[in-house]
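User: Hi! I have a protein structure encoded as tokens and I'd like to know what sequence might fold into it. I'm fairly new to this, so please keep things simple.
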């Protein structure tokens, strides 16, 4: 009975978190892999469906490093397992203050000096900060560029009980602003196979097809611009996109996942980003962890949602209320570690608008803007 519950729990978690990029996956599926950032957890026994995205994380507005500033890639030490009420009102360390505005030209939001009393309060503050930031000047034909540091968990074996934590590795993606041009995905350790027997790209990247019919599962920046800015209407649309016949708990899980993806591996217009934070605050069961670290070792306050034996957490940057990254926190002892351990972290290093797929902000000859 316990084995069945563990398998069911992994299957539910896998339905929420996208699989890692693999050479044999189709270009369409790679286009949907935004959320890797939702920790790239995959169940080898029961694969994640190829189409199930918002979003995504990748589920995608992150704290871009203005000017292409490099981060020291230091793995965080994991969670402390604190519950929301244990540190309410405690002083929040200001040691990590990334250049907060994920959008170009934006002023820094006020520093978060104290941990909010609840996830709802934190999400409300994040929504207010997002609404005040100016929108990027984005042109059709350009690309959203996101570079992340990602990890993940893979389950293998006859019963899917053998868990392996994949090492941290960089991932870069270029997404067409209006969907009219092919995008590009480059993920270390996952070189893409060439088509029709032809050699793959020298950089190991996979060309992503144009997005003729953008949706919550495969959004473009132009699609995101048209989403409702009313939180109730937006949450309703997100729930409907997850499909009918879901239990309330499963529907809430999928909504949390989809919002996370939309906030992460994309650039999201400020009014929509604000509505996404407000929509997340309306999901029953969201929790707050006062201190959490992303894959780069940056600390923030985490908003979480429990799925099976794990809690998926979005780590919010204390200076500008942007998402720093995502991690999985274990709620019970298991093959990945002990209760309270943080595994499968991710972090966003750079978000920018560039002119061509393959352009990287800060490199000679690049025309991109961060």
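Assistant: Happy to help. Inverse folding works backwards from shape to sequence: for each of the 370 positions I chose a residue that suits the local structure. Here it is:
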């Amino acid at each position: 009975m316990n084995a069945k519950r563990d398998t069911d729990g992994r299957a539910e978690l896998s339905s929420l978190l996208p699989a890692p990029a693999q050479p044999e996956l189709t270009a369409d599926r790679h286009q949907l892999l935004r959320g890797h950032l939702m920790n790239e957890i995959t169940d080898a026994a029961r694969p994640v469906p190829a189409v199930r995205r918002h979003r995504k994380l990748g589920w995608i507005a992150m704290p871009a490093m203005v000017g292409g500033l490099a981060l020291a890639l230091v793995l965080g030490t994991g969670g402390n397992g604190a519950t929301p009420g244990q540190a309410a009102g405690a002083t929040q360390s200001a040691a990590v203050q990334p250049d907060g505005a994920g959008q170009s030209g934006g002023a820094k939001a006020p520093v978060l000096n104290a941990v909010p009393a609840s996830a709802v309060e934190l999400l409300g503050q994040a929504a207010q900060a997002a609404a005040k930031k100016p929108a990027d000047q984005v042109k059709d034909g350009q690309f959203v560029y996101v570079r992340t540091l990602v990890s993940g968990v893979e389950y293998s074996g006859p019963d899917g009980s053998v868990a392996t934590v994949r090492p941290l590795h960089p991932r870069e993606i270029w997404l067409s602003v209006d969907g009219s041009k092919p995008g590009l995905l480059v993920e270390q350790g996952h070189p893409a196979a060439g088509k029709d027997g032809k050699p793959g790209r020298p950089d190991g990247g996979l060309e992503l097809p144009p997005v003729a019919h953008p949706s919550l599962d495969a959004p473009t920046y132009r699609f995101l611009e048209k989403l409702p800015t009313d939180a109730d209407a937006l949450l309703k649309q997100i729930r409907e996109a997850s499909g009918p016949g879901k239990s309330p708990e499963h529907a809430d899980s999928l909504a949390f996942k989809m919002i996370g993806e939309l906030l992460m591996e994309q650039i999201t217009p400020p009014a929509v980003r604000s509505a996404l934070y407000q929509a997340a605050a309306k999901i029953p069961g969201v929790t707050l962890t006062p201190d959490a670290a992303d894959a780069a070792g940056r600390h923030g306050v985490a908003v979480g949602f429990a799925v099976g034996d794990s809690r998926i957490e979005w780590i919010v940057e204390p200076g500008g209320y942007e998402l720093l990254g995502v991690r999985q926190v274990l709620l019970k002892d298991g093959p990945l570690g002990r209760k309270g351990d943080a595994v499968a972290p991710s972090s966003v290093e750079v978000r920018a608008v560039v002119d061509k797929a393959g352009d990287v902000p800060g490199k000679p000859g690049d025309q991109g803007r961060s």
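A useful reference point when you look it over: The first strand starts at residue 42 and ends at 43. Feel free to ask if any position seems puzzling.
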